[in-house]
Predict the 3D structure of the following.
Amino acid sequence: MTVTVILNKMGDRVRQLKQAIIERINDKQVRIQWDKLSDGGQVTIFRSLDPKKRATAELIGSSDQGQILLEDQKGVNRYYYLLDAGDAPGNWIAERLVIMEGTVNFRDMGGYQTIDERQTRWGILFRGDSLQRATENDQELVKKMNIGQIFDFRRPEEVKKGPNLMKQDHIAEYHHLPVVHGEFNFMAALEKLKANEADWIKEETIIKGYIDNTVNFAEIWGKVIQQLAQDDCPPLFFHCTAGKDRTGICAALILSALNIPRATILADYLLSNPCIRGVWQRVQKMIADQGVNPKKLEPFFTAPEYAMNALLDHLEQNYNSPLNFLKTQAGIEQETIDALKVRLLES
């Protein structure tokens, strides 16, 4: 997965990096590319497990070619890279997807640019699917990332069926905040489709589910934001089962509170599709084997763009903005929004 982030504002008197892209080349290497400096100067690259610790970041290379290839073993450590042009402090960059063996949609929400050209910090806020299939290596990686707050939006029966798997010595505060709107039973859904019962999966039904989950559980979204805004809040991870619907709603509200453009919010939401594509491909075969057209169940196994667009439209039309929804329905004060920006946005 390729990640592009703006590294610095353009200045008239200082030599600054314009943007950088990081992409994984193979299981052992990543490539970082940037616009070459106008004077042909060197860009120095540092690396750290914690982007808050610039002073202790490890020097790993430099280049004047606009790119560099670096050793980075997949799934072992979560590295953040600092690109420094010399005249002004650079910003961090990292892979958006935290690559794991059993978990497929675990993502860092750093590197997103606000409307006023600030950037979300890396290594503080994560979204994803559950950790019910996390391997020993995955659990070790999550521990190394210092995840200290976990918000789980799954129904009680989902949690009972697939509890999160974590290292026994990994201390994290767990918040089970169920977002319950109906129930999806895979085999029952197939039987309904075989009987040509499809009203429950129409576009308008999916949209209603998104809106109901957002409005009816406003207090839950408010609790996540209030915790995230605390000065002493450790890295926080919020999730549901697949990390796309309930998690997508929470992510959209947080990004809206940070003044992230709608196009970026939608792009973040849609990133679930390439992440869970492998799961969907396997499920499609199971559906087809039951004599049902897999396309009919696609909205339940993907992040449908129309659903998030409709939700954002609803919040604009009925509450003036997602931010105003949080203030009027989720109990979020402007003071909390200000604190959230201090914690999550680069200065």
The chain has two domains: 1-95, 96-344. Residues 272-289 form the longest helix (18 residues). The chain has a mean pLDDT of 89. The first strand starts at residue 3 and ends at 6.
